[in-house]
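# step 3/5: fold
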Amino acid sequence: MLNRPVSVLILLLILVSLVGCFPVCTTTPSNSNRETLQSANFSNWNQWVEKYDKGRRSDSGWLSLAGLFWLQSGTNSLGSLSNNLHIFPNGSPPEIGVITVNGDDIDFTVKSDQVKINGKITEQAKLIPNETQVLFGSYSFYIIKREKGYAIRLKNKLNQSIAHFRGTLFYPYNPKLRVIAKLIPATKDKTISIATVYNTVRNNDSAGLLEFTWQGKIYQLEAVSYGKDEPMALMFVDETSQQTTYGAGRFLDVNWPKQGDTTVIDFNYAYNPPCAITAFATCPLPPRQNHLDFKVEAGETFTGH
């Protein structure tokens, strides 16, 4: 049998070893889980970046835009000849046709046998915005509606902008800029005024304010709602704008809260508006209240057109 002093000494040694083990036993799984989560977040982001870059290079994406023509009320002649109201690029038929705008009715009379409408040869058609496709050679166009009125959005699947595109650039993934945010819902029918690059103002439905904390300070960003089936849309400017990121700000999609009132703003997914790569887009601009006074060194960068 061990004597009492020896027994006490052994007992103390056991207690010390247990206490020494305690922080390791409790923190190691937490650190491991955190590393696993960060690894998954990075992997998901990396896949998203690859998909995003592929979309930018698409022959039907933003880089395929070849023209933007605002329609006037009445007749609008189209073609490559200089006597047309809207002069299309070289390679287009001399006379494509005539678009007649009467209120919200848009009719098209075809004047070239190279033209197809929704894949079919026809002499006349009603042009439904964002639906009816007019095709000739490598070109196509459809009608868009904005606050300013109706416009032709012209695309060219062989546009040189696609061939010359150098690819997208992003900051390295920064897990610190994946922040928890509280949604403070907007009151019913509240809208948010959004200026555009073509000197108009559009009123979108407000989703509310996304409130988060960064380095001890509380910030709020107002998000646009396109309905609960679509993510909330953020447009923001920060202290990297006009330095390492696009000067007019960046866009970011944020999921609606699944439970309660919290969601995640992951600034690593911030991306440039299409106006960063084409002069023919009709981009909205970040509202004044969405200007952040710190550097968001995450998301897409910008090195010039």
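# step 4/5: annotate
The longest helix spans residues 4-57.
# step 5/5: archive (pending)
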